[in-house]
Amino acid sequence: MKLQEDIIRLILGLKIKQLRIEKGISLTDLAAATEISVSYLNEIEKGKKHPKPSKIATIADALGVTYDSLVSLQLSKRLQPVGELLHSNILSELPLEHFGLDLSRLIDIFATAPAKLSAFIKTLLEISRAFDLRVEQFYFSALRSYQELHENYFEDIESEAETFLVTHGLDPEFTPTLPQLTDLLRNGYGIETELATFEDQPALKPLRTVFIPGTSPKLLLNAALTEQQQAFAMARELGFQHLKLELRPYTSTWVKVTSFEEVLNNFRASYFAGALLLNRDRLVQDLQHFFALPTWQPEFLLQLMDTYKASPETLLHRITSLLPRFFNIKQLFFLRFNHQPGTQHYSLTKELHLAGLHNPHASLLSEHYCRRWISLTLFEVMANLPNGGPIVGAQRSNYINSDNEYLVIALAHPSERASETVSIGLLLNENLRRKVKFLQDPAILHRMVNETCERCPALDCLERAAPPVILQKQQWQQQVNEVLQQLQKPATQV
């Protein structure tokens, strides 16, 4: 928000409303006393309008206060916590408009019980500091919520990708090639592409791409990227240019995050890239064919990767966009895991949960994720095939102490650059059973799984990586509560 102007309007509106309520004056009464319409006064109180000085003086007289006290940015003790909130950068960090929230309505809620709500906000901030939650983590969490709110499908970007294909004479039946993408950047936007080893700038070696703006813009692609990753990076750059997204990152992977708008624009450009490389209509037809197969055929997914020249992550993430809209498969998750070779540490580096939060999720940062997940067992397969091609795995996962069961499909592509798996999990329900014909194929492994070893009651699990310390603590707490309840009962009830 335009901070100073918005703060002035909001504080004036809060003070007028608070004074009016304290004096028992209705909006209608104030309108009659000031000869200002009720609707305009309402806009003033919500912080949407800032009246002329003459009208402010009239309102001050009607409320029995001085003009100076009304226009001052000083707030009463009751509203002081709200003032602190307004002057902090918290509200400017919140991407309210992307969630259909109105700032004035939010402030109105704060004003109703300012002390309690401000204390609640401060508590959240203290928790975030205690767990070292950085601003960029908040932004990415907000982005996930934004995607989930829209079921990860954005018709406007789909239409833009189709318009782009038509404008540039590209056949949607064929995936754009690297030379085509290179020509589109050069001829359409004057951007040159270049493979870079970053030998002279070793600090840049972990980055996938670097965009250098200016009169002769250039997109540097890390020479270690696969052809599929290069294609996605160039298609994403086309997204930035075609969608005219000016506030954007200039590197991939992220180095510094400055705003939610930057994060959102990067997502929009990435979504455009997926829509450009994996045409919606073609992929929907291919998925219909895949789900109609009577048996589990992992080769089909490998063929899709080859047909669309897509990396495992690009393919599965694109599928999560289409399943809710075209197959009514809405209860699903997407996960990306990284593994540091030679260690037992697995990091959940990307996640998306549609139709509610499904297990697993990344809030369990210090715990050991269940080693029975196909997402993790695929790392063992990769360890034996360091130079092999893409790997596909499938599993039906039943969560211990839960009725939930998921069909989980995982993909990985071994490389020297990184050890990574991506997977999608589809909740088994009647809709999925009707659509996916190969669900009962015995080739798909069935396994009992849990969230983490620390929470798991399966004490005989051969894959256990840590004792169930959190589960044991929860059980102890329950036992203590039961004993205390017994002790507190009257003697006649014992």
TrEMBL record:
UniProt keyword list: DNA-binding
HTH cro/C1-type domain segment(s): 16-70
Stored SMART domains: HTH_XRE
Coiled-coil segments: none
SUPFAM superfamilies in the cross-refs: lambda repressor-like DNA-binding domains
Signal peptide (from-to): none
Keyword DNA-binding: yes
DNA-binding is among the record's keywords: yes
UniProt xrefs under Pfam families: HTH_3 (PF01381), Peptidase_M78 (PF06114)
Alphabetical list of Gene3D superfamilies matching this protein: lambda repressor-like DNA-binding domains (1.10.260.40)
Family of this protein: Belongs to the short-chain fatty acyl-CoA assimilation regulator (ScfR) family.
Protein name: Helix-turn-helix domain-containing protein
